[in-house]
Amino acid sequence: MSDALDKAEQAVRAAETDTAVVQLAMAAMELAKAAQQNQAQAPAHTCQHDHRRQGRSAGEWLGIACAVCVGGVGIAFASLALAILGGVAAIVVLVLRDMWRDMQRKGR
Predict the structure, then answer these.
(1) What is the pLDDT of residues 84-99, one digit of tens each?
(2) What residue spans of the chain are helical by DSSP H?
(3) N or C: which end of the chain has fewer CB atoms below 10 A?
């Protein structure tokens, strides 16, 4: 960028007699200076959000507690259903075994 500034200053010195050329050269020199300042001032990309971990709010904790309660009730009902299913299956097996034995005794 300094090379562009030097060229712009030389153009201003060479065109001192012609006012239009002087104005164009001054404008070019100002643009080059502004571009150089913008490049020097442009910081690296930074995130706009906060990286610190914040605690949960009361509403979030209440939602988690409700989800755990509903899940616990669901597991309780599922366990109860499995226990009933197991009992019914045992009764069915015993009845079928007894029927099978009766059929075997009568068949002899």
Answers:
(1) 999 999 999 999 999 9
(2) 2-14, 19-41, 58-107
(3) C
